[in-house]
Every structure is written in C-alpha cells, then in structure tokens.
Specification:
This protein has eight helices and 18 strands. It starts with 7 loop residues before the first helix and ends in a 12-residue tail after the last helix. The strands form seven sheets. The chain has a five-stranded mixed beta sheet with strand order 12-13-14-18-17. Strands 1-11-8 form a three-stranded mixed beta sheet, with no helix packed on it. It has a two-stranded antiparallel ribbon with strand order 2-7. The protein has three domains: 82 residues, DnaJ domain (Helix Hairpins), CATH 1.10.287; 76 residues, Urease metallochaperone UreE, N-terminal domain (HSP40/DNAj peptide-binding domain); 95 residues, HSP40/DNAj peptide-binding domain (Sandwich), CATH 2.60.260. The chain is of the alpha+beta class. It is elongated and about 105 Å long.
Length: 346
C-alpha cells in the first residue's frame, strides 16, 4: 500500500540535484541526532528517525530515486530503520560501537619499473590490529546483571504500522547482560602495531597482482575463537618510464641513435633504466622509427624486447669542407640531391 508522496529531499535537508555522498552525509547527521538511543522515551524523535531512514532508503536506491523524481508516490519504508545505522551508532555504556575488524588486510605497494624488471626482495610496511584478549575485541565485558535496555533479550523491537522491526541491543551488543568498559584496553577493543616484512617480488609481475603474506593479518575473535588472517600486497607500478614500458614480461623501449652509428651498422647496447642491457645490430636500410625485435631479451623466459630506433642527424653546424665531403659521399650512394617531391600517404 502506498502513502501520499513525501518530500524526501526536504526531510534530509538536501537539494534535488545533490549527489550520493551529500545525501549520505545528511542522513548520517540526522540519524545520529534522532537515534532512539540518544532520545530514550521521545516518541517524536523516534518517528523522525524512522522518517529520515525512509527518505534515505528511497534516495540512496537508484531505481527508487528515479521513480520518485518522476513523480511516483512514496514506497513506504521496506526495511528495518535501525539496520542502516546500527553499525554507525550502536553504543556500549561508554564508547561507540566499533565496526568489526576483518582478519585480512589489503595494502598497495607502488613499485618502480626497475624493480619489476629485476625482481628480488622488497621491504613492505603495514599496520596490524590485535584484539584485546580480555574482551575479545568488543571493548566491553559482560556482567551477571541483566541489561536494562533489552531486559536480557539481546534485541530491541520497534513497531511501525503493522510491521515489527528487530535489532541487536546497542547497549549490551546482543549479550543480554550489562556491559562494562574493558579495563585492559579501556574500551579500545584493539591495539595496532606497525610491522615491516621482506617480500619476494617476481620479475615481470602483472600490475595490480596481489601477493599473500600469510600469518601477517589481523588477530581477531570470531564466535569466541581467535584467528589470524593474511595481509595482501597489491603491486602497482607506472605503465611507462623514461621511454620504457612493460607488458606481461615483454619490454618496449624507444631510443635515439646517431646517424653515423646507423651508417656503420654497429652493434648497439641499450641501457634499460640502468638495470638491464639489450644488444642488437642496427640496419642502415631501416627507416627512422623502425622497431627491432630482440629475441629472448624480455624480462621473463621466452619474452622478447621491442626497441624502436629513431635516427639522430647531426645537430652541430658542419664546416664547408666537411659538408662538401659529406655531400660528395652521399651523392655517390644516393645520387644528386632531389629538389622536387610528391606527397604520399605514408
């Protein structure tokens, strides 16, 4: 059954063209202001809290928001108004409820292309979280007294129209007994520690690959059992650097070689970022910009290197005598200099 259309934007105090983040911030602020835990026995505050939750449910859902903006009637609240904010505003006696800490960590390591080409050991720093053993990561410890908020049920019920909503008691965190701030961790639930670990970086690893560091995640409790997770290292690096790029173990590079080196058809040695040398013989018949394929010169076995060579012509002003000699030699090879040319598509 639908209800008359409400001004959900007005309820949240935002403009109609507000983005999702603005709507979310407005909702958080109002939900905190009117949350029943902060307004015990205040029926008006509870009604306002449900109205705010209803507005957010509609405006945070793309399809519902689209229908609403086109003039559709309001949907009525379809979920538990406490669910959307329970993780943000659940409280024990003295401290805010903290989001559960997961067992695994994920961190990003920005490598250089040189590190990817050579591989080897890298040092990685990250932060681990350790659950307090006394309160098992909850920040509070239960007593034998029954929780006066939920009367020992561990849950709270609220009713709107003909619907009943059930949510975990924010004061006892679902235990049913009164909770006291843990004296060992002072309600912090977790301690943090910075660590450094040496990790083997494989040569030519693909960007955004994850490396698992086993046993170096967070120490947490789940259903009363302590477990230790892993830290996952996401390897990232620039796609190109100083004329060099990589693709799954293949090297692509660009260099400029002097004209006389090309004419002499010398074997050239290309320095790849100071960590690898590639050798090959240049061909004087190839145009400037020709890409040489060097077999098995890539990062990993069976991978090649592709080097694009641009010819550098003399930049210094030649003396009349040197210019005359060069013209004479070039004339013998190419004939007299041409003075008329036709356009081409190449």
């Amino acid at each position: 059954m639908t209800s008359p259309k409400k001004d959900y934007y007005g309820i949240l105090g935002v403009e109609k063209d507000s983005d999702a983040e603005t709507i979310k911030k407005a909702y958080r602020k109002l939900a905190m202001q009117y949350h029943p835990d902060r307004n015990k026995g205040d029926a008006k505050a509870e009604a306002k809290f449900k109205e705010v939750a209803e507005a957010y449910e509609i405006l945070s859902d793309t399809n519902k928001k689209h229908t609403y903006d086109r003039g559709g009637v309001s949907y009525g609240f379809e979920g538990n108004p406490f669910d959307a904010v329970s993780n943000m505003f659940r409280q024990n006696q003295k401290t805010m409820y903290r989001q559960p800490v997961g067992t695994d960590n994920k961190i990003r390591f920005r490598a250089t292309l040189s590190q990817i080409i050579t591989g080897g050991k890298i040092m990685v720093g990250f932060t681990r979280h350790f659950a307090c053993n006394d309160c098992r990561g909850e920040g509070s410890i239960g007593s034998t007294e029954v929780c006066d908020t939920c009367q020992g049920a561990g849950q709270l019920k609220s009713q709107m129209a003909n619907m009943v909503f059930v949510t975990t008691c924010p004061k006892c965190l679902g235990h049913g007994q009164k909770r006291e701030v843990c004296s060992k961790c002072q309600g912090k639930a977790y301690t943090s520690k910075k660590e450094k670990v040496e990790v083997s970086l494989p040569k030519g690893i693909a960007p955004l690959t994850m490396l698992q560091i086993k046993g170096k995640g967070n120490e947490v409790y789940h259903n009363g059992i302590k477990s230790v997770g892993s830290t996952y290292l996401v390897i990232d690096y620039p796609r190109s650097e100083n004329g060099v790029s990589l693709d799954m173990g293949t090297i692509y590079a660009t260099v400029r070689v002097p004209f006389n080196t090309i004419i002499a058809e010398e074997e050239v040695k290309i320095d790849i970022l100071g960590c690898k040398k590639i050798k090959f013989k240049v061909d004087s018949t190839k145009k400037s910009g020709y890409q040489y394929q060097v077999k098995d010169a890539g990062i990993t076995k069976g991978k090649d290197a592709f080097v694009k060579v641009f010819i550098d012509f003399p930049k210094n002003k030649l003396s009349e005598d040197d210019r005359s000699k060069l013209n004479e030699i070039m004339g013998e090879v190419y004939g007299k200099p041409l003075r008329q040319f036709k356009t081409t598509s190449d």
